[in-house]
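User: Can you recover a sequence for this backbone? Please restate the input before giving your answer.

Assistant: Of course. Working from this structure:
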């Protein structure tokens, strides 16, 4: 009688990601000033990000960070350089956390000066402004010595960027090979509610964020 060896248990594949931005309702409910300074990371947020990177590194894991461009305008980005030196990838999260699906300035959370739109020679579409302001989006990140590893849209959308070939084309022109844009419900109740919507953005409290899938083509 032969006894076959028990099959090895399959290992779960887990992707760790962290967006480098400030969030409304942080550190207390009702605080929304961060909507106008998403890249102005406070000391606690930077320390948390660096600590998470160190813990993951010590355990042989990687965290894929997505950085708002305005973060790089802070005087000291040494903490981010340390994260990069540990081998963690860093992707682009737009310059100032705009709604990439917006078709006019009123739909963006941060007021955009008319001069910015005029200088771009566009009709004010968020995608056009993003390309104008982030001329080096897919190139080397200033002061970091790396090229962005992927692109993540602020928030997330139930159908990703399907139906927006203009945005897909713009991101391709910027040199991106893949984007993270799809957000899916995490419980049956929210899943049934989302079926009746054309798209949905993330609106969960900071203490409980839904998972986001990474897609190479939307």
């Amino acid at each position: 009688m032969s006894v076959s060896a028990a099959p090895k248990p399959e290992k779960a594949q887990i992707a760790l990601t962290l967006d480098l931005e400030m969030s409304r309702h942080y550190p207390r409910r009702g605080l929304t000033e961060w909507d106008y300074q998403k890249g102005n990371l406070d000391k606690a947020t930077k320390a948390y990000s660096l600590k998470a990177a160190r813990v993951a590194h010590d355990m042989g894991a990687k965290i894929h960070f997505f950085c708002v461009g305005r973060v790089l305008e802070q005087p000291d980005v040494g903490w981010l350089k340390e994260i990069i030196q540990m081998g963690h990838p860093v992707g682009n999260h737009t310059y100032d956390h705009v709604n990439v699906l917006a078709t006019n300035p009123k739909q963006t959370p941060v007021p955009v000066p008319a001069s910015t739109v005029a200088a771009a020679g566009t009709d004010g579409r968020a995608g056009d402004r993003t390309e104008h302001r982030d001329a080096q989006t897919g190139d080397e990140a200033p002061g970091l010595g790396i090229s962005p590893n992927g692109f993540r849209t602020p928030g997330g959308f139930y159908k990703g960027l399907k139906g927006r070939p203009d945005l897909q084309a713009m991101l391709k022109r910027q040199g991106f090979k893949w984007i993270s844009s799809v957000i899916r419900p995490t419980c049956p109740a929210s899943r049934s509610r989302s079926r009746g919507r054309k798209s949905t953005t993330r609106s969960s409290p900071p203490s409980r964020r839904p998972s986001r899938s990474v897609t190479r083509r939307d």
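That completes the design. Residues 56 and 176 are 26 Å apart (CA to CA).
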